[in-house]
Amino acid sequence: MTALHQLPATELITLIRSKKLSPVELVQASLDRAEQLQPVLNCFITLCGEQAMAQARQAEQDIMAGAPLGRLHGIPYTVKDLVHTAGVRTTFGTVLYKDNVPTEDAPAVARLNAQGAILLGKTTTPEFGSQPFTRSPLFGQTCNAWDARRTSGGSSGGAAVATAAGITPLAIATDGGGSTRIPAACNGVVGIKQSNGVVPHSQAQDLFGNQTYVTPTTRTVADTGLMLQVISGDYALDPWSIGLKRADYAEAARHQGDLRGKRVRYCYAPEGRDVSVDVRQTFDAALQTLAGLGATLEPFEAKDFIIEPIWRTINHTVWRSRFLPLVEQHGDTFSATFRRQIMSAGEYSAVDYQEAMFVRSTLFKRIQGVFDTADLFVMPTISRTALPLDTDLFDPFEMDGKLYDGIRTHWYPWTMLFNMTGHPAITLPCGLARDGLPTGIHFVTRYGSDDELLRLASIFESATGTPVQPVF
Prior knowledge:
- By secondary structure, this protein is of the alpha/beta class.
- The protein has helices at about 10-15, 25-40, 50-65, 105-115, 155-165, 180-185, 220-230, 250, 275-290, 310-330, 335-345, 350-370, 405-410, 415-420, 450-465; strands at about 45, 75-80, 120-125, 135, 140, 170-175, 190-195, 215-220, 265, 295-300, 375-380, 395-400, 400-405, 425-430, 440-445.
- Strands 1-3-2-6-8-7-14-15-11-9-10 form an eleven-stranded mixed sheet, with helices on both faces.
- α2 (about 25-40) runs antiparallel to α3 (about 50-65), α7 runs antiparallel to α15 and α10 (about 310-330) packs across α11 (about 335-345).
- The radius of gyration is 21 Å and the shape is globular.
- The two termini are about 15 Å apart.
């Protein structure tokens, strides 16, 4: 019999509604697992044990009384500690905000709660989500769910690890340059960055130039579709979401069939970048799977796609505007890595920023043009498996015996691109490397076609089987 912690939300919902599983039993099991694994993985900054159990008991009473039930009634979930939760502290991964308690929920949180989901706790993030590793002076380091000597990735490392470890089936993460997809790939789970506006973002300060996303992290494509169905939709205070066409994401993510008639463009890495032998092998196997499903494959030459400098000009300028006063007044509370990133943006002028925004527009047109001759664009999510735990953002890293300088541009050269263009992108488990750690494959579709992305991802997932999970 499949252990409770290995079941997806789609199956747990059926068990709860048929009264074969109590929300009290499920939430208690999730809390027990969180407390058991927290000393090993360090993926939570806050656990909401008493609150969660009180809600679980009420959820059980509602079932027994025959009351109307929400779509996620009794299902526990986690929220990255960048996302507002009313009455539950949101620290942004910083000592400075260790006691910050929001007065209202972010839209995604409010929508999950409205459908009966139960908040289990807040997951770890580096300071303001500022790097692809999950560490902070506030809580230390979050370890990979497969190997505690490796990084969880970041900045949604806590969300990915808690999900991979089976603590909850659903997690709210965020993604500003790959922050959902990088840790999802490192930990062998599903991470999506939807099109801009699909999930409203109430905390972005630059609403119109925003490139950050509030996102789902789950273990299955069906759970991602279910979660996206609940948290998506029109929101009056996010201009990108106003009047956005709704789709049935839950149905799309349960799609079965093949890929006959589908055109797939693929690329290992942008010109001038490498992938490890292991990643190439697992990616090649994935391409064979796509071909076996009936897709027509054609390589894509990614010339002039080294976009990290453009992303950094835009992103770090935003960070400097937001965080420089904090660094100047409270510098000793932040890590040296965070301070270095904020100060580095001082070299960019207003003209540099605007020119980078012009390039961003050009990149959107180039990626949108790919889909004139393709239905799906695929590439590896990360160039090698999870890096050693103590790696710093400014350190070189090793891949197949060679050192590479520039973690953003060499370890995840693709993810930042789709934050800037807004195209929907999802990472899926893509087999294990020789070191026993997961690799990921990255699917991208035309802007606004998130339901189609989920359909294609579901077909691939069905063909490759249920992803292997770490054993604890």
